[in-house]
Amino acid sequence: MSYMFHGGPMPEFCSFLVFSPNEIDLIHSICATANWSTRDIPDPSMRYAFSERGGISELFQASALKDIGLWREGQQGGRLLLLETEKTEADNIIQLICAANVILEGFPVIKNPPTAGFELSDDEADREITFENLFRRDGLFQWFTWHQTLPVAVAIAVEAWGNKKLVYAIHKLAHSYETECVTPWSMHPRNGQVFEKHTDDFASHVGTSVAINLAYSAIEELDLGVKASPDKPRSIGKGTFEWSPEVLEPFKARLRKAGIDPERTIDWVSRGDQSEVPVYEMLNQLTEYSDGVEVRDRKVSLPDAINFCEFLRNTMTAHAFSSKTQRLGPYEVYNVQQVARFLILSKCNLWNTWTEGLRKRYN
User: Fold this and answer.
1) Where do the domains of the chain lie?
2) From CA 185, how far away is CA 201, in angstroms rounded?
3) Contact 221, 172 (CB under 8 A)
4) From residue 181, how far is each of 98, 103, 109, 215, 275 by CA, in Å?
5) Which of 16, 36, 70, 104 qualifies as a FRET site for 326, CA 20 to 30 Å off?
6) Rg of the chain on CA atoms, in Å
7) How many CB atoms lie within 10 A of CB 216?
8) What are 114-152's pLDDT values in tens digits?
């Protein structure tokens, strides 16, 4: 379908987002639910090759197009998603999809994510010049991106599109990951303590604090922070995490309204020697895989996990640093990010959803 834009055809932007031939129809179906006008063309970068059996080959340098050549028998190129809209909207869509992918992965896996669309000429000869002289040259070549999680990232972006608060939550959490994070697989209990828990590096204290602040701010964008005040304290008694029903019950109701089960639990990761702030001792229910020594992960209710994230933010990172701030490290960052990640994906109704699940939902 063609659209008119200021008296002419709607501009068409290269998104730099590449999908396999068997994904692209699904992507159009997902985008249509947000009224995004899309179409696709063969990936002009020729960076990726997809086999009939599901294998993927990737080139990391544009020069490899000449050195290695094109696809082998049984392989075909990817499909490039085009956006028919004005530039600001195209850029917002691309940036949101890439931010959603960071959250989905729990780590900024894509090294050179696209940050803006590239307007394509409606003249085919001009397009071919662009493809040859720009898209198949190092620089923009590395912007062309395929990843197995991208279809779900598109779905997250679509779910958030009409909700600016959710859009901001996604961008804030993605920026938190980009500021400081660890790989999710390094947190698997079989790995025990992988990282030093604290550092004397001042700049690292700032990075840790910024990452925690951004992640908790993402939770606040969802209106899922703890709503308490001096007149309505969250706890019964000072220095405890025993909830006041007057605060807890409305909090649970807001979680339910967001489509999130307040009875869910979160595994709060704690590794190595017990050197965290004393408040950790209040989280005393170990997970079934904890050994109580090197792996001391706790099973925490969702309201308690959010409350503890806020405690870290309020008392150690959001204001002038105290002596406790330097006791924070990669495990606290991971925990707060994981809570925010769970809430965002659940709010989008895409927790533990992968491409095959999308096919059932959108086709």
Assistant:
1) 4-62+73-162, 173-347
2) 25
3) yes
4) 17, 11, 11, 11, 20
5) 104
6) 23
7) 27
8) 999 999 999 999 999 999 999 999 999 999 999 999 999
